């Protein structure tokens, strides 16, 4: 099963502290342990919200775009990992090892697989999804 570990944090509170260089070393060891165990499929940190935008969809045809920073949002996504593990307990086990500050959180969320929608989504939608996944893998050398 695939799981996404999503780091969330209070960006305003984090702005008041300078990252300890040791945290980068700890994070490198954490990531390397997941690579060595063969569970890490992807993982990235995200830039501050000042370098992003929020799109809000309403009744109009075009979404409203608001440039960051997102001062009205209490918790922001700061990074993520995608793991291939046997189940939720394994994903939580890896999340417990992450080197983070007080007040930071990790959401552990299972990623849907196409078979989760078998018998629900129309067959032509399932076939189109399979084609898109194959095309994406081909384009990105996966």
TrEMBL record:
Listed SUPFAM superfamilies: Dimeric alpha+beta barrel
Organism: Actinomycetospora atypica
Transmembrane segments: none
UniProt cross-references to Pfam families, sorted A to Z: YCII (PF03795)
Domain YCII-related: 1-113
Name of protein: YciI family protein
Membership in a protein family: Belongs to the YciI family.
